[in-house]
Write a structure and sequence with these properties.
Bound molecules: coenzyme A
CATH architecture: 3-Layer(aba) Sandwich
Distance between the termini: 30 Å
CATH superfamily: Gcn5-related N-acetyltransferase (GNAT)
Shape: globular
Structural class: alpha+beta
CATH topology: Aminopeptidase
Strand order of the largest sheet: 2-3-4-5-6-1-7
Strand content: 25-35%
């Protein structure tokens, strides 16, 4: 185990630090009610096109500096999104795709919620809860023993408590360091102004 002394540590310029919390559950929790009047539809996208996937990933994730999938070349991305054990869903609302759900069943008897996110316009309208209810139904319909997710300090501040209210138990933290994806051209420079570029 890494020994870390208490204190502050300087980081190289252009480095984006991030505290990641891992959460898991081992059985499907009791259903929470769907908020009323949710007018959204969840659509499984089989054989997603890379351009469609990247556009939705930007649409949802730029505000939170999501970058991992953007760093993959075509073959790398295709290997993930073209794998039949990776289920990709779009949240369709107000006439367009406004949310991304990606469930990764590649490890045996487990499912990772690899991506769970709504575009800004949908946040806070009850659609997150509705989407989590659909996620739990889909994931636990598979022969899994564990459902897990991680969220980080760059994500929406409501995400971690939302996952905890959903029945996930936090079990591990990690520190992640990355080159700021705006500085390496993966994400537009004006994205996430709440996170200064240093
Ligand atoms: C994390 C995220 C999905 C949460 O969704 P959200 O839209 O903020 O949450 P909701 O509005 O659906 O739900 C929040 C609560 O308000 C309630 N609520 C919201 N609108 C409501 C309404 N109109 N009527 C009744 N209840 C409502 C929900 O029931 C829920 O309560 P509960 O948790 O006690 O069940 C969303 O913030 C998001 O996508 N953020 C951006 C991407 C991100 O950070 N993703 C996480 C990465 S790991």
């Amino acid at each position: 185990m890494l020994e870390i002394a208490d204190g502050y540590y300087d980081l190289p310029r252009g480095t984006l630090p991030n505290v990641v919390t891992f959460l898991e559950m081992h059985a499907c929790p009791p259903a929470r009610p769907d908020p009323p009047n949710v007018r959204a539809r969840l659509r499984r996208v089989e054989h997603p096109e890379r351009a469609w996937y990247r556009a939705l990933y930007h649409h949802v994730g730029d505000a939170y500096l999501w970058y991992s999938r953007l760093a993959l070349d075509d073959d790398g991305l295709q290997a993930v999104i073209g794998d039949p054990r990776v289920e990709i869903y779009a949240v369709h609302c107000d006439g367009r795709d406004e949310g991304l759900l990606e469930l990764d069943f590649r490890a045996s008897e487990a499912c990772e919620i690899a991506y769970f996110g709504l575009a800004d316009a949908l946040v806070g309208r009850g659609i997150g809860r509705w989407l989590m209810n659909r996620t739990l139904e889909i994931a636990w319909a598979h022969p899994i023993r564990r459902l897990w997710v991680h969220t980080c300090t760059l994500d929406h501040p409501g995400a971690l408590p939302f996952y905890m209210r959903s029945g996930f138990i936090p079990y591990k933290r990690q520190l992640e360091f990355a080159r700021d994806p705006r500085l390496v051209g993966l994400v537009p420079r004006d994205a996430a102004p709440q996170v200064p570029m240093i």
